Amino acid sequence: DGGITQSPKYLFRKEGQNVTLSCEQNLNHDAMYWYRQDPGQGLRLIYYSQIVNDFQKGDIAEGYSVSREKKESFPLTVTSAQKNPTAFYLCASSPGGGSGSFNEQFFGPGTRLTVL
Amino acid sequence: DAKTTQPTSMDCAEGRAANLPCNHSTISGNEYVYWYRQIHSQGPQYIIHGLKNNETNEMASLIITEDRKSSTLILPHATLRDTAVYYCIVRAYQTGANNLFFGTGTRLTVIP
Fold first, then answer.
1. Is residue A23 packed enough to be buried (19+ CB in 10 Å), middle (13-18) or exposed (0-12)?
2. How far apart are CA A58 and CA A44, in angstroms?
3. Nearest-neighbour CA in chain B from A46: distance (Å)
4. Helix, coil or strand: residue A97
5. Using one digit for the tens of pLDDT, what is the confidence trace for A18-31?
6. Which of A14, A31, A112, B23 is deepest in the core (most CB within 10 A)?
């Protein structure tokens, strides 16, 4: 089945440790996104990538880093510089490019990160 | 991007139509209205989008006022599985990455 996978669903880390969240898609989408969601809040954009080897900061990029070495993968690293890392992290992808079609975003199931 | 205003929460009886309003009074001529929903602890799911004409698909209908300053998402026969947060988003269509701003949305509760 085509889709977006995020693993693990729940992740616990000690304060001060870096942690990498994985996001893989087999939809052949050019664009990928990372969002953060806090309880009772909407989604906030962390980083996005329009194409391999390119990515842009979103609204709350501080304390996070990403890479886009492969079209299918867009891992997010939560660094120790992120002051409040405990949150629900969502990855998404969209066709992007110049396809001329509507760029619906497809979301993964999310990873709930808890920093102890 | 135009800002949207939605009620914080709404209830709807199971089997009845759920009408979710959205105000976007500063919408520009090239901006679309998108609706997504998020069931608890899952990723958001696309529902429907439109520019100025009313739209219908297997999930819902989207009614956009003639002046485009507001719209209504209609779930014709709400079921318990429609309980979710519904996001109204306004954004100009563009190629490349299509960043969407998800606000706090409307929490719809379908009551048995």
1. buried
2. 8
3. 11
4. coil
5. 999 999 999 999 99
6. A31
How confident is the prediction for chain A on average, in pLDDT? Answer: 90
Contacts of B93 in chain A (CB under 8 A): 102-103
Torsion sign across C-alpha atoms B19, B69, A44, A22? positive
Q: Where are the beta strands (DSSP E) in B1-112?
A: 9-13, 18-23, 31-38, 45-50, 55-56, 61-64, 70-75, 84-92, 106-111
Whether the bond between B76 and the residue before it is cis, its omega within 30 degrees of 0, is no
Give chain B positions within 8 Å (CB) of A92. 43-44
Q: What pLDDT, in 10s, does the model give residues A63-99?
A: 999 999 999 999 999 998 888 999 999 999 988 654 4
Rg (CA), chain A: 14
> Which residue from B46, B93, B102 is facing A43, i.e. has the nearest CB?
B102
Continuous segment of H or E residues that includes residue A57: strand A54-57
Interface residues of B toward A, Cβ cutoff 8 Å, are: 36, 41-46, 49, 87, 93-105
Residue B45 has a pLDDT of 94
Q: Which residue of A has its CA nearest to B103?
A: A42
**Do B102 and A99 lie within an 8 Å CB cutoff?**
no
- Residues of chain B predicted below pLDDT 50: none
Q: Classify strands A10-13 and A111-115 as parallel, antiparallel or unpaired.
A: parallel
A99 vs B contacts (CB less than 8 Å)? 95
pLDDT higher than threshold 60 for residue A56? yes
